[in-house]
Each structure stands twice: as C-alpha cells, then as structure tokens.
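Holo model, manganese (II) ion. Inputs:
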Amino acid sequence: MPAVFVYLVISAVLSGTLAYDPDMLQDICVASPSSGVEVNGFACKSEANITASDFAFEGLAKPGTITSSVGSVVTTANVEKIPGLNTLGISMSRVDYAPGGVNPPHTHPRATEIVFVLEGDLDVGFITTANTLISKTVKKGEVFVFPRGLVHFQKNNGDKAASALAAFNSQLPGTQSIALTLFTATPAVPDDVLTKAFQVGTKEINKIKDKLAPKKS
Ligand code: GLV
Ligand code: MN
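Output:
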C-alpha cells in the first residue's frame, strides 16, 4: 500500500477521533485546577474529597444581569463552574437578552452548540466557510444548532426580555467574540492590520477600539 495512502487513512482516523473532547477513561475525574499538574483538561481530585456539589450549579436558575452595551449576558456552566464536568465532554450556558439585545458574532473553537429558546423569539444565524448566512427566527420551545467553529449570533427582535439555554459538546467550548478579539486583544492587533482588513483609516479603527475598550470603574 503506498505510504501516502496509509498516511491519509491514519490522518482521517485521528482527525475523526480528535474532533471533540477526548473520551473519559474512568467514571469521574472531578477537576482539581489547583493541583499544579498540567494536562489536557484538569487533573482529577482525590475521590475521597468528591461531593455532590462538584456536579451541581445553581447559576442558570435566574436571568443574568445585563450590563453590556450589546444588551445580552451569557452565564456559563462549564468545567470552570462545575468541576465534575472534567473529561465528560459537555457543558451549558444561559443567555439573557434585553429587548433588541444581541449576542454578538462569536465562535466556539472546541464545540458545536445547540440552543433551546426558553422565552421570546430570537433571530439567529451562522456563517459557513463558503460565506453563506444560514439564519432563522426561532421561537420559544424551539432549538437551533451552530456547528463547531462557525461564527454565529442571536438577536432578540421582540419588545420583551428573551432567554435561551445552550448545550455544547465540550467541557470548555471557548468563546472568541469577533469584535472583541480583533479590537481589544492584549497586546493590540496592529492598526495597520485592522485598517487593511476593514479597508478604513486609523481614525475609524480607534473609534471602534474606544467603544469596545473595557470601561474603567
Ligand atoms: C450562545 O451562542 C452562547 O454561546 O452561549
Ligand atoms: Mn455561541
């Protein structure tokens, strides 16, 4: 068999098995972020110290407080909040939207997301790598899927508050919000990269940077 064919088969198999969080090798591995051991995920806490609270979280019970200028807030329920999720490959979040609020375009590099509308109607969409927008209005009780890594958003077009629950096939999906990533990174993305990318001048770039900069309290 030609070596190149063997290489392609092995690459395809590996990319298939690595397309999501690695599989668990034991019943539970409650995260111990302070262990100092550096692994992919978190080291396991000693089973003698595990309690039910390692698997529980009350933070999604109530709407989050919206303070952002975009009119939405995301409350995450991932391995950072629920240590028992370590190695299990799933997590959730709750999104609350003010009337007209937007969860701005963002991606999750490590997960596909499925969103369930708890309250209100949401205009949702994602953009494929062929630059096609797939969009729809989803109503209370309906679900919509955002494939892994693709830029997506939601908007509450109603005149009442809306909310949604999202589930992810990763214990820590990661979020890159497109505008914040480009305009508020540290160190900053060079202005000459942004002016070329957006085909505008430094003045426009600085205006966006000022608007998005975290407000000093
Ligand atoms: C919604 O898109 C979320 O990431 O929580
Ligand atoms: Mn999302």
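The CA atoms of residues 137 and 174 lie 25 Å apart. Strands lie at 72-77, 91-97, 102-107, 113-119, 122-127, 133-138, 143-146, 152-156, 162-168, 176-177.
Archived with the compound record.
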